[in-house]
């Protein structure tokens, strides 16, 4: 779906020496995968995401979206139509005064026939669970609802892949749950490829695969259980692990015979109950 | 002297079709030196409430007395009140505007008409509180990292030497390490000064770790108000309000359901670890 080969991106300016924001990134994201990207502020994860739909172009190496080289100018629009982006602040992404008009914005610009637009808008709103709000004004909705409208707006382009850059950073717990449920549905029902950039470890734990970035490079790339069992390494680069994983890691360090490749409360309770019963 | 709120009510856009009751029947007493976590879903009235605390909003009904000053009083010295109650808004780094870090932090005390020396002393103190030293003073605030910018903005409020510090989501949008850093500094600041701190947050983990008391707002009313353990003991009620409890609280509940005698009042990793180690020790001895 998306492939990077020796991807490099550097900022150049007159005053400072070249700084590599991305350094030799080789990744392949498969169709239908749900990938979470973690890393501290400034590690290059947003820069990477912006390469996935050609918003940024590599200064070295290549990015291919469904086999299309993002550097090929004649393919710009084709690349962007296939990879939808959703950003952190929903207020900066909504343009219209009525929800359904907002969702229709992209297909209208693509010159899609109006009957088809109607269909796409309704489908997209159903997918994010916001169909009942189609005639509402976006600015009167909650943060989670607005963000789901932004997702619907991206979906209405019928992309093959959707990239979300910290979509829940500004939301309350309920808003976060709503957005995550929508993302799960994209994966399960629409079989979409999803790339989720986040600071929340519990969100990353729900992905099929977690990529950890540090200083412009890929540090870890594996299933969540494996990645989060690297508690020490993650803490060292300023990241966190889910609370239960950290607790089990601490207990293990203190000499208890527990596994710590565990991400959920239920699994953790099972593990602890087992250990406490055994003694 | 603290903060006293009686029967506070606030109606947003009264008389228009958008009229919404954003606060109703708020009665609250906050003592000097408390560390209060204020939580609630988006639109629950948290921001409206804190804007009342330094007189940015005046009570439409009811009254608020902060350090002996009633904001409704015609002769109330609101300038004094605002220097005593420091309010750090969400994403405060958006409000940075000066050429250098020093000038930005000095803006408040300078406007208070303090002497050059006094201003310098306060700026230095405030920046030290947030962990930024002299080497940063002449930098442009715009060349700093996100976490640093935010700390400069917080220092701008601290330089006013407020008695009460209100922070609206100070860690939102930061990565875990910067989050940790800013919260540790707020905690240290609280312990070293005699400030009252009110922390508005969506992160239950953060509130659990640093606040002593939690106030939960829901639909413009105070729904719960108590010690951290008491509030997080009511997971179902919090979830129904669109909130959550820390993962550790959920774990403790799951362990209890499995018949493990663990103290319900546990909501941090450190306490959970200690409790489980103790249980293991008891088992070994038995």
Intertermini distance of chain B: 52 Å
Name the shape of chain B in a single word.
Answer: globular
Please state the average pLDDT score of chain A.
90
The CATH homologous superfamily of the largest domain in chain B is named P-loop containing nucleotide triphosphate hydrolases
- Let me know the average pLDDT of chain B: 90
Q: At CATH's second level, what is the architecture of chain A?
A: 3-Layer(aba) Sandwich
Report the uncertain regions of chain A. Answer: none
Approximately how much beta-strand content do the residues of chain A carry? 15-25%
CATH class group of chain A: Alpha Beta
Compute the separation of the termini of chain A in Å: 50 Å
How would you describe the overall organization of this protein?
The complex is a heterodimer of chains A (279) and B (286). Chain A has 279 residues and is an alpha/beta fold. Chain A has one domain: 3-Layer(aba) Sandwich (Rossmann fold), CATH 3.40.50. Helix content of chain A is 39%, strand content 22%. In chain A, the strands form 2 sheets. Chain A has a 6-stranded mixed β-sheet with strand order 6-7-8-3-9-10, with helices on both faces. Chain A has a 4-stranded antiparallel β-sheet with strand order 2-1-4-5, covered by helices on one side. In chain A, helix 4 packs across helix 5. Chain A starts with a strand and ends with a helix. The relative contact order of chain A is 0.14. With 286 residues, chain B is of the alpha/beta class. Chain B folds into 2 domains: 226 residues, P-loop containing nucleotide triphosphate hydrolases (Rossmann fold, 3-Layer(aba) Sandwich); 41 residues, no CATH class. In chain B, strands 6-7-8-3-9-10 form a 6-stranded mixed β-sheet, with helices on both faces. A 4-stranded antiparallel β-sheet of chain B has the order 2-1-4-5, with helices on one face. In chain B, strand 9 and strand 10 form a beta hairpin. The longest helix of chain B is centred in the middle third of the chain and has 17 residues. The radius of gyration of chain B is 21 Å and the shape is globular. The model of chain B has no long low-confidence stretch (mean pLDDT 90). The chains are: A alpha/beta (279), B alpha/beta (286). The interface between A and B is large, with 41 and 40 residues.
